């Protein structure tokens, strides 16, 4: 592939709605309520994510990566969580609390091997309008 040596960020937004609760298996109901407050009860969020790729603009295609290829990769991961109870329906969250942090890690881990040439740069995830995380994992 020819490169014109100009690097650029490419972003794709996606959404999903999931139920979850934050509670530790090692704590009693009362202890969980004390630690996590209202979040220890089952509730839901409309999550928003932005997946960012970073790389050189290919001189022939004019693209870093074809968004038409990126879309189904993101949808595949998002569909494992959309309209699901994260804690019960997604294996990863049986052993990892379904915090925004861990959801971003889950998305990264499920995308990084599909996106070629180490292009995956970051996952930004909003749990609410006011609460968000940005994860930059390792890209082997
Ligand atoms: N570090 C984190 N802290 C918290 C997380 C998280 O994922 N990472 N998650 C929660 C709960 O999931 C909770 O549902 C957050 O919702 P809520 O408190 O309603 O959200 P807001 O802060 O946007 O609501 P306010 O109206 O601003 O209080 C808790 N902590
Ligand atoms: Zn929540």
UniProtKB/TrEMBL annotation:
<dbReference type="GO" id="GO:0005739">
    <property type="term" value="C:mitochondrion"/>
</dbReference>
<dbReference type="GO" id="GO:0003874">
    <property type="term" value="F:6-pyruvoyltetrahydropterin synthase activity"/>
</dbReference>
<feature type="binding site">
    <location>
        <position position="20"/>
    </location>
    <ligand>
        <name>Zn(2+)</name>
    </ligand>
</feature>
<feature type="active site" description="Charge relay system">
    <location>
        <position position="127"/>
    </location>
</feature>
<dbReference type="Pfam" id="PF01242">
    <property type="entry name" value="PTPS"/>
</dbReference>
<dbReference type="GO" id="GO:0006729">
    <property type="term" value="P:tetrahydrobiopterin biosynthetic process"/>
</dbReference>
<keyword id="KW-0456">Lyase</keyword>
<dbReference type="InterPro" id="IPR022469">
    <property type="entry name" value="PTPS_His_AS"/>
</dbReference>
<feature type="binding site">
    <location>
        <position position="45"/>
    </location>
    <ligand>
        <name>Zn(2+)</name>
    </ligand>
</feature>
<feature type="active site" description="Proton acceptor">
    <location>
        <position position="39"/>
    </location>
</feature>
<dbReference type="InterPro" id="IPR007115">
    <property type="entry name" value="6-PTP_synth/QueD"/>
</dbReference>
<keyword id="KW-0783">Tetrahydrobiopterin biosynthesis</keyword>
<comment type="similarity">
    <text>Belongs to the PTPS family.</text>
</comment>
<feature type="active site" description="Charge relay system">
    <location>
        <position position="83"/>
    </location>
</feature>
<dbReference type="GO" id="GO:0046872">
    <property type="term" value="F:metal ion binding"/>
</dbReference>
<protein>
    <recommendedName>
        <fullName>6-pyruvoyl tetrahydrobiopterin synthase</fullName>
        <ecNumber>4.2.3.12</ecNumber>
    </recommendedName>
</protein>
<dbReference type="InterPro" id="IPR038418">
    <property type="entry name" value="6-PTP_synth/QueD_sf"/>
</dbReference>
<keyword id="KW-0862">Zinc</keyword>
<keyword id="KW-0479">Metal-binding</keyword>
<feature type="binding site">
    <location>
        <position position="43"/>
    </location>
    <ligand>
        <name>Zn(2+)</name>
    </ligand>
</feature>
<comment type="pathway">
    <text>Cofactor biosynthesis; tetrahydrobiopterin biosynthesis; tetrahydrobiopterin from 7,8-dihydroneopterin triphosphate: step 1/3.</text>
</comment>
